[in-house]
Write a structure and sequence with these properties.
Length: about 290
């Protein structure tokens, strides 16, 4: 079991470590460019490449997306209980409570732990979190946010629509297009991991104890909620496990960027991101050992 868990976590740790070391050695890394590349090209290609030939029915996929929305909604409500416990405004705590790192960290962990058969469910969770984060999240972090415009400009949304159409009609992509998507999508997960390491290297976390305290509250709560929601919706066991794992991921790096943008205690949020990510290498193996 240890060898299996190490095989899951080692690529994640090494990939993020490469990005962390690269920046600490003084080399440049164009985070905005890479983020746009991954979000606008890599992720849509990954969605189509993974879902077009996936052995997953459209209903299970959409129900997993619904389950993710329900967990996010309950986590948002839970913010109003957690914020007073940590003596912080709910506006500061909302994003870290709601948005886990289902992309940079979640996708690789699911891929190596559960295999390609589970990857479609991981994408369902990741895309749902991203859509909410870049619509509702932007609206909350800026008065001038335009969530509908942002939603309309999200390539992943159209990729999901095409992929679900292919699943429902049992249509296969032409071989040339399938090969192209497979090739392009190949850079997505490695760049996600490297960018995660780069982002952690650039974050200045000062209040580490606060990050640990927050993680002790958020992670078990998110895992429990995901398990309950998955059970109530009647998700397939594999989809339910993926929902639990994905929603238990550490705080997404984008929450720190949103905190900077809105001026809502970015240093505190940086501590939440940094500590929860480091703790993930401790609690994720235990969670995976329970689920596998």
């Amino acid at each position: 079991m240890f060898a299996q868990l190490f095989a899951v976590m080692a690529p994640v740790l090494i990939g993020a470590g490469l990005g962390f070391t690269w920046v600490r050695l003084g080399h440049d890394f164009p985070v905005p460019f890479v983020t746009k590349l991954v979000f606008n090209i890599g992720t849509p290609a990954l969605i189509l490449a993974s879902l077009a030939g996936a052995e997953v029915d459209a209903q299970s996929f959409t129900m997993t997306m619904l389950g993710t929305l329900l967990v996010l909604a309950v986590m948002a409500l839970a913010t109003f209980l957690v914020a007073p416990l940590l003596d912080k405004p709910w506006q500061v705590m909302l994003a870290p409570m709601m948005y886990p790192n289902t992309g940079n960290m979640g996708l690789p962990v699911v891929l190596y732990a559960f295999g390609q058969s589970a990857f479609a469910f991981a994408i369902a969770v990741m895309v749902t979190v991203s859509l909410v984060q870049f619509t509702f999240g932007i609206a909350m972090s800026s008065r001038s946010g335009r969530p509908l415009r942002t939603l309309a400009r999200t390539p992943a949304l159209y990729a999901i629509a095409v992929a679900l159409t292919l699943l429902l009609t049992e249509t296969e992509l032409p071989l040339w297009l399938d090969n192209t998507l497979e090739l392009i999508s190949g850079f997505t997960v490695p760049l996600m991991l490297i960018t995660l390491g780069v982002s952690l290297a650039n974050i200045r976390a000062r209040n580490l104890s606060a990050g640990v305290g927050f993680s002790v509250i958020r992670i078990p709560l998110a895992a429990l909620l995901a398990f309950i929601v998955g059970h109530l919706l009647g998700l397939p066991p594999l989809a339910q496990s993926i929902l639990v794992v994905q929603m238990s991921m550490p705080v997404a790096v984008f929450n720190y960027l949103f905190a900077q943008r809105s001026g809502r205690e970015p240093e505190y949020v940086a501590s939440l991101v940094f500590c929860s990510t480091l703790l993930a290498f401790i609690y994720l193996p235990m969670l995976l050992a329970f689920l596998l």
